[in-house]
Amino acid sequence: MASQVKSRWADDEEDAALEAQRRREKELKKKAKADRQRKVEEENLRKQNAATAMDDSINGHDGVNGESERPSKRRRLSPEQHTATIDPVPVRLLRFPAPEWGPCRHVDNFEKLNHIEEGSYGWVSRAKETATGDIVALKKLKMDNANDGFPVTGLREIQTLMASRHENIVALREVVMGDKLDDVFLVMDFLEHDLKTLQEDMLDGFSPSEIKTLLLQLTSAVEYLHSNWILHRDLKTSNLLMNNRGQMKVADFGMARYYGDPPPKLTQLVVTLWYRAPELLLGTEKYGAEIDLWSVGCIFV
Q1: How many CB atoms are closer than 10 A to CB 194?
Q2: Contacts 24+ apart (CB under 8 A), 26-34
Q3: DSSP states of 109-161 as a string?
Q4: Residue 112 in contact with residue 123, Cβ under 8 Å?
């Protein structure tokens, strides 16, 4: 066997001396760390004893032969002891009610009472919910182009009604289905009158105070729509419903659209003729909230 050749760079004595020096330094560091830890524990124990003696002197618990008897209740100073004596409380998750997805109810849950009117985008009837007895307005959407899918006018009406939760805007309660796929009904609040019929049947016109009250309700609803970037585009007296207590609600959102700034390109064939703004009559394709305000002025007149 070949003899093992020693490297000329190796120095066993020097390496051994360096290793011994490293061990001594490591032991000194461990000893210094242990001394610091011991001093910290002694200081904590001294503070704890001083606090206990102060509590005993304040509460007057001096025992026999100079010994202090333990008080019945003593403030715990050690957080470790405190947490050890208390049982952990089980964590409970808070549950909040949230709407769930589900199928639409059937129209058979409502009993039709009488027909009210036929609008541009549906037939409206008065109905009673059999479970609660509530009187509601049941609007059946016109599905003339059902072969091409759900009509966009119906989608817009549902979308804008759901986004328009205001005391002077008719509330959409739910959407129900019939036996056929094209039988879609909107369940809304029922109000006994509309402004047009009231004006035609009244012997005397509204008083100035009543006009102010009605206009305040109308402008409040229109302001809410415009603040949510919704154009009604068909404000007229027949679309303003009223109950027997004089509360007015804006209805018929079949022509309602979202708009923006700059205004999008829209059709000018909107709003009943006698309430239509001049720019619509002249064929403009870009307009905004001003066309609803013109209709409000016509209603006021």
Answers
A1: 20
A2: none
A3: GEEEEEEEEE-SSEEEEEEEETTT--EEEEEEEP-TTGGGSS-HHHHHHHHHH
A4: no
The rounded distance, in Å, linking the Cα atoms of 163 and 138 is 19
Alpha-carbon gap, residue 156 to 151, rounded angstroms: 9
Q: Are 287 and 276 in contact (CB under 8 A)?
A: no
The span from the CA of 280 to the CA of 64, in Å, is 104
Predicted confidence band at 220 (pLDDT cuts at 50, 70, 90)? very high
Structure tokens at 71: 């008080």
Whether 252 sits among the annotated catalytic residues: the reply is no
Look up the domain containing 224 and give its range: 107-300
At 119, list the tokens: 């609008």
Query: Quick one: tokens of 52?
Result: 């206990």
- 35-83 pLDDT, tens digit per residue, is 888 888 888 888 888 877 776 666 655 544 445 555 555 555 555 555 5
Residue 126 sits in a domain whose CATH number is: 1.10.510.10
Catalytic annotation, pick one of 56, 62, 87, 234: 234
Our count of domains for the chain comes to: 1
SS3 94: coil
